[in-house]
Amino acid sequence: MTEKRTPDLDPGEMAAVVEEFNGFYIRLPSIQRHSFTTLSVLHTLARRSPMRLGELTATEQVTQSAITQVVTRLENDGLVERRPDPRDGRAVLVHITPAGAEVVAARYADRVARLAPILQRLSAEERSAIAAALPALRRIAELGESQNEQRGRA
Amino acid sequence: MTEKRTPDLDPGEMAAVVEEFNGFYIRLPSIQRHSFTTLSVLHTLARRSPMRLGELTATEQVTQSAITQVVTRLENDGLVERRPDPRDGRAVLVHITPAGAEVVAARYADRVARLAPILQRLSAEERSAIAAALPALRRIAELGESQNEQRGRA
DNA sequence: GATACTTTAATAAGTTGCTGATACAGTTCC
DNA sequence: GGAACTGTATCAGCAACTTATTAAAGTATC
């Protein structure tokens, strides 16, 4: 067996690949009755419900006013609920409802169902190369998010 | 040295990681004076200019009417040009201009600059794991795109 | 514990970017 | 050379965003 040279990771190449890949991935969209921002809010809440409106404003890329309106729409659809914050009478805590969690789960299941057959067409080596990279990609997301939180506080 | 078990690739786990990662990546946005669709059109043209309006309509997730309007805006900003198709008098070929290519390149450079310092914080093993996975990710994008073209023809 | 300041969310008015329907010019087919 | 079809543009209407403002609750100071 010939020895494998581990290639070094070039940020420019990685960004190029990530963008190509995303171009494909974001076009795997299941049914969307909701706007991009609305879905993003719902997805965020699926991970860390309940959240204040202000927290949501910080994570999404829109104004506080837009978040208020998005949450109102989601509430009318029964996907989230507004409840008072017992610790702060000014604040509102947005909770995701079972119906909201269901929407997120269904969209996720749909994308997995579309991704799986494509993965079948890769070689075993390609699949295991991706599997081996997943922990590192997850760590980048964590590092990046904590960095964004730092910036948010400024 | 203990032998490493190559883990098998689970589509569900991959989708979860991809979405976590994208949640981080799409929030690395440089200056955006343009809408999501507008930037997406410009990005598509950066790779395969010139294109007909109909082709753009097929790749983006909006109506033909929206594409006409997006191209008009981009044209007013000097980022693309409409030229007649010599082979078909009804059609229009949208060409990206140097200024348009510049916008795409600048946005790309900006994201690379933000990604690079985060990659520095990974271990050498994590970086080479990602580097080893890039060709496979690129291939998924190719496989997925050709599949979408099939659907488009229906 | 009254006064001023800050923080959190909601509301109002205006703008932008999309959709759906329709029009029109160029192409194809017989 | 007329009918049917294709590719793009236009128009009216609507949804989702922005900025600016307001209301209400909390905090600090004295």
TrEMBL record, chains A, B:
InterPro entries in the cross-refs: HTH-type_Bedaq_tolerance, HTH_MarR-typ, WH-like_DNA-bd_sf, WH_DNA-bd_sf
Signal peptide range in chain numbering: none
Top-level taxon of the source organism: Bacteria
SUPFAM superfamilies named among the record's database cross-references: Winged helix' DNA-binding domain
Any Pfam family: MarR
Database matches in SMART domains: HTH_MARR
Domain HTH marR-type, residue spans: 1-139
Gene3D superfamilies the record matches: Winged helix-like DNA-binding domain superfamily/Winged helix DNA-binding domain
Name this polypeptide is given: MarR family transcriptional regulator
Lineage: Bacteria, Bacillati, Actinomycetota, Actinomycetes, Streptosporangiales
